[in-house]
């Protein structure tokens, strides 16, 4: 029972017509067919999960002998039943590799021998089970067209199934279209990867695919392939790299770019496509054979071999010369690079020293400016302190002078002070009436004589002395002159206002 369950997927593969057509591609391409078979088996396993009950009945039933059934006939319009298309259209995500770009030039197919009355809608229906078509072009006059599918794997499946398919009396010819926007890159450095190559050439336009070609050991061969999405980007990259030197790494060896030669190493040239003209029949008169020694064919065959050997030797010599020249150039380049790095380091050192010197000069200038500013601030502070000190001294001097003016000087004798006070009082009392109507100079000299020693107001408080006692009126002449009165005491002057003639008693 377990053995029958294991052989169940094989029976399903045999019963799916689309899978039968896919597995027939094993004779044409081993790698593509293995990938297609894996995808189909995955689809069949998913179908088994959805139909578990029916599969259990098949597993318990007696197993029939596996027989090869011929593929079903395809209608003239190139369409199949929906039940037959379900085998490959269940989940198209399984035919997409991780990170693979969709609708690229690599998934573009050339379809030849198309009927002249085919339409774009019929072309899309013909490739309907292989996913959505991104581009459809038909040249009805010449009978060919192009169609772009989602992925390369789907395009391979469509190519295997639809190639040589009859359609309205013609056999379709399905091939991969030539990639007209692909370039070959040579002289790649050793450590350039696919990602770096794609990143480098993405400056010219959108890159669909970038691959570094390696040998059987996985080492870089120095060659790569870059495929752009359009011809303008490829032309731009070709022109820019031809005019300038495009470097990918620090190794100063520029890459060379040239259009990629398109070769078909999968289909080749089948017999049915060879033009059968007169030259063809002449060349095919004799079958493949070895030339007999001594014959005409043998002589010229040996001469051809000698020419080929000479070409090979010359090519090897040219390769050796180029290799030696490359090694010599690399050695010179390494020496020059070392000298260049030393020169750059020396220049960088000189530049840093110059910057350091300039920074020191700027620092010194800043220090000098700071010192000058501090000196000016110190001088200004001293000047303000000196000004404040002078102002304080001036204020103190004025205060002292005001104090002296309000109070008598203690150093003068008492009798002098009393005399000055008496003189002032006498003058004020005797001239009170006279000064009201006359102008008296403010700077009149004080009176001298015996009366100067009398305190101010004493003359009003005590009766004047008798006239016989002051026979000489020289001392009072000044008073009379100032008041405009005759000399002598103004005893009976009605204009005088003297206080009471009594002495106060305290």
TrEMBL record:
SMART domains: RRM (SM00360)
Start-end of Gly residues biased regions: 471-483
Main localization category: nucleus
Location within or outside the cell: Chromosome; Nucleus speckle; Nucleus, Nucleolus
Annotated ranges, domain RRM: 107-179, 181-262
InterPro entries the record matches: NOPS, Nucleotide-bd_a/b_plait_sf, p54nrb_RRM1, RBD_domain_sf, RRM_dom
GO molecular-function terms, A-Z: DNA binding; RNA binding
Residue segments, region Disordered: 52-85, 457-506
Coiled coil regions in record: 308-401
Gene3D superfamilies for the chain: 3.30.70.330, 6.10.250.1170
GO biological process terms on file: DNA recombination; DNA repair; innate immune response; mRNA processing; RNA splicing
UniProt-recorded name of the protein: Non-POU domain-containing octamer-binding protein
Originating species: Patagioenas fasciata monilis
Gene it is expressed from: NONO
